[in-house]
Amino acid sequence: MVPTIAFTSHDLDQVRYNEHGLVAAIVQELGTNTVLMMAWMNADTVRQTLDEGRTVFWSRSRQEVWRKGDTSGDRQFVHQAFYDCDGDTLLFMVEQEGRGACHTGERSCFHRSFGGSAERSS
Amino acid sequence: MVPTIAFTSHDLDQVRYNEHGLVAAIVQELGTNTVLMMAWMNADTVRQTLDEGRTVFWSRSRQEVWRKGDTSGDRQFVHQAFYDCDGDTLLFMVEQEGRGACHTGERSCFHRSFGGSAERSS
């Protein structure tokens, strides 16, 4: 299989996993630049995400692979993938399928503001 | 002191801290919508961030309060603050002062892409 994201082993070596073997993954929508959600990946699901070109997470609550959208239909197709300066957070630019990223039906999981009055500008 | 972000105790009660007493905080730039960085806050620094209107983190490596920009001059002024559906990640929309958010001198900590060729679109 040709990887969707042409990553190198050097890239993978930059990723730093925490004591649970997980790395934080921020998901941002291509075009609108809305931050949709943050979830966690282990080394296997990072690799699957890059190989398959869709986000695959590790569910901490269920302790299982969480192939985003397999149940809801709201898949996320990865266009670009970044890692931060210390390698412990990833950023995926995605095309969001369906209603959105959040299980509540909202497009973004960050739909509640402190104070309640802020309008999301992104 | 009048809080910059008019949060309520209900908002603060929504925040879920991990086993280390920390919550993930994504910082996004107002206007460009660039994701600048991700770091961690404890209950005290969440409160300080909202009260003072600038980001204050908890440094896991130094195990101390990290008042972003006190050393570098690159402060982040908070315009909006959000919490996600399960309350374990925060999102701050900020005005970034100075060179940028990253200690490397880059504007965003996410300046390296898997495959090395992706241009940040945000």
Can you tell me about this structure?
Two copies of one chain form a homodimer. Chain A has 122 residues and is of the alpha+beta class. Chain A has a domain of 76 residues: Phosphoribosyl-AMP cyclohydrolase (Ubiquitin-like (UB roll), Roll). Helices cover 13% and strands 33% of the residues of chain A. In chain A, the strands form two sheets. A four-stranded mixed β-sheet of chain A has the order 2-1-6-5. A two-stranded antiparallel sheet of chain A has the order 3-4. In chain A, β3 and β4 form a beta hairpin. The first copy, chain A, is globular, with a radius of gyration of 14 Å. The mean pLDDT of chain A is 92. β7 of chain A pairs antiparallel with β5 of chain B, so a sheet runs across the interface.
What is this entry, summarized?
2 copies of one chain form a homodimer. Chain A is α+β, with helices and mostly antiparallel strands and 122 residues long. Chain A is built from 2 helices and 7 strands; from the N terminus they run H-E-E-H-E-E-E-E-E.
List keywords for this structure.
13% helix; Ubiquitin-like (UB roll); homodimer; 2 helices; alpha+beta; 7 strands
The fraction of residues assigned to DSSP E strands of chain A is 25-35%
The name CATH uses for the topology of one domain in chain A is Ubiquitin-like (UB roll)
N-to-C SSE series of chain A?
HEEHEEEEE
Distance between the termini of chain A: 35 Å
Largest interface: A-B, 43 and 43 residues
Could you name the CATH homologous superfamily of one domain in chain A? Answer: Phosphoribosyl-AMP cyclohydrolase
Mean of the pLDDT scores of chain A? 92
Q: Which consecutive residue ranges of chain A, at least 5 long each, have pLDDT under 50? A: none
What is the general shape of chain A?
Answer: globular
The percent range for helix content of chain A is: 10-25%
Secondary-structure-derived class of chain A: alpha+beta
- Can you identify the CATH class of one domain in chain A? Alpha Beta
Largest sheet of chain A: 4 strands, mixed
Corresponding CATH architecture of one domain in chain A: Roll
Number of helices of chain A: 2
Give the spatial strand order of the biggest sheet of chain A: 2-1-6-5
The number of E-state strands of chain A comes to 7
Radius of gyration of chain A equals: 14 Å
> Which assembly state applies to the chains in this document?
homodimer
